[in-house]
Design a protein that fits this description.
The longest helix is centred in the C-terminal third of the chain and has 34 residues. It is globular, with a radius of gyration of 21 Å. 51% of the residues are buried. The chain has a single domain, classed as Amino acid/polyamine transporter I (Up-down Bundle), CATH 1.20.1740. Helices cover 77% and strands 0% of the residues. Helix 3 crosses helix 16. The protein contains 18 helices and no strands. With 445 residues, the protein is mainly alpha-helical. Bound molecules: 4-fluoro-L-phenylalanine.
């Protein structure tokens, strides 16, 4: 492969991978999961999963991409050929690339909603802001055309960035977007900690409720770690191909994981004090936490509308830098497979994703009664990707690097220090493989 598709300097890879990792999962899902699942007890389990499973699996994905220097599918093919293992390992890449498109189809719907909230300014003289907020969210979810508009807009921006290319599109955009994202999250946390109820937040966060840690909660913490780190579907593997040759895999992956976790924790600090500041609101609101609860909380605080706008810009940026990584694995594969220009490939796939997204939009309204095995279209897609495709992808990556590839080969190419390598292999082989296997089994029951 020519060097035109390798990012210059170490920071672009870090920003791109952190951009992929930091997304709706950190700023929307993580706080509401913490809120509904026992506060810091959930955080502790989550952190253990990040370190014991996330770190080794992410390092493995980066390793495959960097070694192969191609799309995940062709990098796996190359790896298989050079180490004389079955060529069927390429299916791992196909599974991931497909999962990316499926996830993007509904991710873009939620990102579009967050995008629309930048412009959702409450009238100034509301008697009952909670009722207003709930009605607003209800109306939005019952208006397919409005949702389609925001979904389309978000997807067009995503496709434009990916269509421009790896260096000029993805590389440049993350260099602009990520610093803004970091700045905004720090700004919001300071605002929230100083205007909201920090004491209530700290006592909530530092008094873990271990009784709420059921097996289902532990497993959802693990699933969240996967989703949040963007592992199990080749996004990080695809980016690994664009990593500079000299960049160190171990240190880089540690940095990305640290950034992802910090943003999730800061998101908690940005959201909880604001919600706690209003005694009518609860942090256990579930998925409605940021769309229904948070706007009400902002409403009653000084400069609330300004910070509400900043908050929803932050979420939109975070979602955008993740969305581009969901599209990249399939795009890179198609580019290698055909003579079609990248822009046209992206346009085609964008249309497919857009079309599929309409199914998720209809799940809120005109299709809400159509269920298959008790799940509507959106829930089915979510289940298929998060509970089946993602853990399967992660499990096979762990098996491939931990069990199947010759140890010497991995040792030579991953370039970790002797002791770090031993720990890495131990975790990958036993801890990651074993626990992902458990999540997977559980999610099937
Ligand atoms: N990590 C993203 C988030 O936390 O929102 C979601 C995601 C992006 C998952 C890219 C998977 C992926 F390949």
């Amino acid at each position: 492969m020519s060097n035109t598709k390798i990012w210059r300097g170490n920071s672009t890879f870090i920003l791109a991978a952190a951009g992929s990792a930091v997304g709706l999962g950190n700023i929307w899902k993580f706080p509401y999961m913490v809120g509904s699942n026992g506060g810091s007890a959930f955080i502790i389990v989550y952190l253990v999963c990040i370190l014991a499973i996330g770190l080794p699996v992410m390092a493995s994905e980066v390793f495959v991409g960097k070694y192969g220097r191609k799309s995940p599918i062709n990098s796996l093919k190359k790896l298989a050929k050079e180490t004389n293992i079955s060529e069927y390992w390429k299916f791992l890449g196909i599974l991931g690339a497909l999962a990316g498109l499926l996830i993007l189809s509904y991710y873009s719907v939620f990102a579009g909603m967050a995008f629309s909230y930048i412009f959702n300014l409450f009238p100034s003289d509301l008697e009952n802001p909670s009722a207003y907020s709930s009605a607003y969210f209800f109306d939005l979810s019952k208006s397919p055309l409005v949702l389609i508009f925001w979904h389309s807009l978000f997807l067009v921006i995503t496709c434009l960035i990916v269509g421009i290319g790896v260096v000029k599109g993805i590389g440049r955009s993350v260099n602009v977007l990520m610093p803004i994202l970091f700045l905004f999250i720090v700004l919001l946390s300071i605002y929230s900690a100083s205007t909201g109820d920090l004491d209530a937040t700290l006592s909530f966060l530092f008094s873990p409720d271990f009784s709420s840690l059921t097996p289902a909660v532990i497993l959802s913490a693990m699933g969240q770690a996967f989703f949040s780190l963007s592992i199990g579907m080749g996004a990080i593997m695809a980016y690994g191909a664009y990593m500079p040759e000299k960049q160190h895999i171990g240190k880089t992956v540690l940095t990305i994981i640290l950034l992802d976790t910090l943003v999730a924790l800061f998101a908690g600090i940005a959201i909880f004090p604001i919600v706690f500041s209003n005694s009518f609101l609860v942090v256990t609101a579930g998925p409605g936490l940021i769309f229904e609860t948070l706007p009400v909380a902002f409403y009653s605080l000084p400069m609330g509308s300004l910070f509400s706008i900043i908050f929803f810009i932050l979420i939109t940026i975070a979602a955008l830098s993740s969305a581009i990584s969901l599209l990249e694995p399939f795009t890179a594969w198609m580019e290698e497979l055909s003579k079609i220009k990248r822009k046209n490939i992206v346009a085609l796939m964008g249309f497919f994703v857009w079309f599929l997204g309409i199914g998720s939009i209809f799940s809120f309204n005109i299709w809400s009664d159509y269920k298959f095995m008790g799940l509507n279209f959106l829930e089915l897609l979510d289940y298929l990707t998060n509970n089946i495709m993602l853990p399967l992808g992660g499990l096979f990556v762990a098996i491939l690097i931990g069990w199947v590839l010759p140890r010497k080969f991995v040792r030579k190419n991953i370039k970790l220090k002797e002791n770090s390598f031993k720990v890495f292999i131990f975790f990958l082989k036993y801890v990651s493989t074993g626990s992902i296997f458990l999540v997977f089994l559980y999610s099937l029951t």
